[in-house]
Design a protein that fits this description.
Helix 1 packs across helix 7 and helix 2 packs across helix 3. The longest helix has 18 residues. It is built from nine helices and six strands. It is an alpha+beta fold.
């Protein structure tokens, strides 16, 4: 569809930060992120669902261009945007979790956690573990904030599949939630594919929602 990012050599990052609706918006609007998908990971139960999540955690699965945004930059967003904090143990569904995809990510994540603990003077509850499986969440969870704006979804003709895979959907999900500035929106080449009515609609919500908070 129009407004998609040209394919490049990408990498993958997977984080648990609390309710996955908020981090879907946060990372989706981050420059260098290609696409996002929310789901379940980190546990052992086969084919988890929202109502039967078992020992899995709600996570955001991110595809990104490492030449445009580094894993360390993504980790900065990770450390600074947890819904339930970083120091107290909470139920597994909303746990603080980094699932690394290679040895480099493991090393960077461990050094980053050590740095955060020194800076904060506290022991963090974040678990760092090797990625094994990811199970996409149900359709109604994908780009949840964007789906609240049926005008955009319908006028862009976004299918359930595109809500998981579209770069434009990822961006718009963040913009309508107020996760980026009006300056970023106005200078985002992805959004140049919007028609005038769509563009003004999104701009209105960027302005209205900026700074209102993302959490569930």
């Amino acid at each position: 569809m129009p407004g998609e990012i040209e394919e490049t050599k990408t990498k993958r990052a997977t984080f648990g930060m609390g309710c996955f609706w908020a981090c879907d918006a946060l990372f989706g609007v981050t420059p260098g992120v290609i696409r996002t998908c929310v789901g379940y990971a980190g546990g052992t139960q086969p084919t988890p669902t929202y109502k039967k999540i078992g020992d899995h955690t709600e996570v955001i699965d991110i595809e990104y261009d490492p030449e445009a945004v580094s894993f360390n930059q993504l980790l900065t967003l990770f450390w600074n945007n947890h819904e339930y904090g970083l120091t107290r143990k909470i139920k597994t569904q909303y746990a603080s979790l980094i699932l690394y995809h290679d040895d480099e990510q493991m090393s960077i994540a461990e050094k980053s956690r050590d740095h955060e603990q020194r800076e904060r003077g506290e022991v963090l509850a974040t678990t760092i573990r090797k990625f094994e499986n990811f199970y996409p969440a149900e359709d109604y969870h994908q780009k949840y904030r964007l789906q609240l704006h049926s005008f955009l979804v319908d006028s862009l003709g976004l299918t359930s599949s595109e809500l998981r895979t579209s770069s434009l959907a990822a961006r718009l999900n963040g913009y309508v939630a107020g996760a980026a500035s009006i300056e970023q929106f106005e200078n985002d080449p992805l959004c140049q594919s919007l028609n005038e009515k769509q563009y003004q609609y999104v701009k209105k919500h960027v302005i209205e929602n900026q700074g209102n908070g993302l959490y569930c």
